[in-house]
Design brief:
It contains eight helices and seven strands, in the order H-H-E-H-E-H-E-H-E-H-E-H-E-H-E. It has one domain: Rossmann fold (3-Layer(aba) Sandwich). Helix 1 (about 25-35) packs across helix 7 and helix 2 crosses helix 5. Helix content is about 30%, strand content about 15%. The chain starts with about 25 loop residues before the first helix and ends in a 40-residue tail after the last strand.
C-alpha cells in the first residue's frame, strides 16, 4: 500500500494492519520529536530546487497552496483551476509519477516539483513561507505498527509540517491514520482537527477514484493551522545560503475546505 493507482481500477484491497487502534506509542513519539532537533542533512538537489521555487514564490503576491505527494498532479491541476488567484505547487519524489502529468496548458499558477517533502517543508519553513492551504491526499499509510515513524504524524518532520500553517486537509482510506494525525496535532498544541466521512463525487486523485470504485470508506481531516503557533527547532542554513523571506498574510477565516465541485474538473 499504496499500489499503482492507474492499473486495476476497482480492485484495490482495503488497508489491513496488525494495529487495531491508535498506536500506543504515538504520544511519546510525537513528544520526542517536538523536543529534539531533526538533524538529517538537506540534500544538495533539494537546496537547488528550493532556491528556484523561492524566487518564484517571492515574485508573486497571491496566496500559496501546497499539494504534497501529488503523484501525477491530477489533484494539483484541479486545485489550480479551483483557485486561480493562488500559486499551486505540487510536490512528489517520484519522477515516474510526475512524468505521467500532462502539460499544464493555460494554468500559469501551477508548478510541478520533483522533490522530497522532508527537505522542502523544512526549507519552506526556514524561508518564512506562509501556506494558505496544504493538501496531503492519500499518503502511504504504513499500516504495520512497527512503521509508526514512517507515517507523516510519526515522523520528525511533522512539527515543521504543522508550523507551515494554513488550512490543512488530509485524506485517507484508513480511519486510524487520520485519527492518529488529529491526536498528534493536539499533542503539539496545534488545535483540534475535524474528521469526516468523505463522499467525493468528483475524485481529486487516481487513488481516490480507485478506492471509491473498490468500495472503500474514505476520510478527510481538516484544520486551520495558524503560522507560528507551533515552533520547530531552527533550521540550520548552510553557510552562504540565503533565501527570500516571504511571509504572506494568511486569511484568518475558519472556512472548511471547498466542497467538491458540481462539475467534473
Amino acid at each position: 500500500m499504496p499500489v499503482d493507482p492507474i492499473a486495476h481500477d476497482g480492485n484495490s484491497r482495503a488497508v489491513t494492519s496488525n494495529q487495531n487502534a491508535i498506536h500506543r506509542d504515538l504520544f511519546a513519539v510525537v513528544r520526542k520529536h517536538e523536543k529534539c532537533r531533526y538533524r538529517r542533512p538537506i540534500a544538495a538537489h533539494s537546496k537547488t530546487e528550493f532556491k528556484r521555487l523561492d524566487r518564484i514564490v517571492g515574485a508573486r503576491s497571491g496566496p500559496l497552496i501546497l499539494d504534497s505527494g501529488c503523484g501525477d498532479g491530477e489533484s494539483t491541476r484541479v486545485l489550480a483551476r479551483r483557485y486561480p488567484d493562488h500559486l499551486v505547487i505540487g510536490i512528489d519524489k517520484s519522477r515516474a509519477r510526475l512524468a505521467r502529468a500532462p502539460a499544464k496548458g493555460s494554468l500559469n499558477n501551477l508548478i510541478m516539483v520533483h522533490g522530497d517533502c522532508i527537505d522542502l517543508w523544512r526549507l519552506a519553513y526556514g524561508a518564512g513561507w506562509a501556506v494558505e492551504r496544504h493538501y496531503l491526499l492519500y499518503p502511504n499509510p504504513w499500516p504495520k505498527a512497527k512503521h509508526l515513524q514512517r507515517r507523516w504524524h510519526g515522523h520528525p518532520v511533522f512539527i515543521c509540517l504543522a508550523a507551515l500553517g494554513g488550512l490543512l486537509e488530509v485524506r485517507s482510506n484508513w480511519k486510524t491514520y487520520v485519527e492518529e494525525f488529529a491526536l498528534a496535532l493536539t499533542t503539539i498544541g496545534a488545535g483540534k482537527a475535524s474528521i469526516e466521512r468523505l463522499r467525493a463525487p468528483h475524485p481529486l486523485t487516481a487513488f481516490e477514484r480507485k478506492f471509491l470504485t473498490s468500495g472503500h470508506a474514505l476520510y478527510r481531516l481538516s484544520t486551520r493551522l495558524p503560522p507560528g503557533h507551533v515552533s520547530p527547532h531552527p533550521i540550520d542554513a548552510p553557510p552562504g545560503e540565503e533565501y527570500a523571506v516571504n511571509r504572506r498574510p494568511v486569511v484568518e477565516d475558519r472556512e472548511q475546505p471547498a466542497p467538491e465541485q458540481s462539475r467534473p474538473d
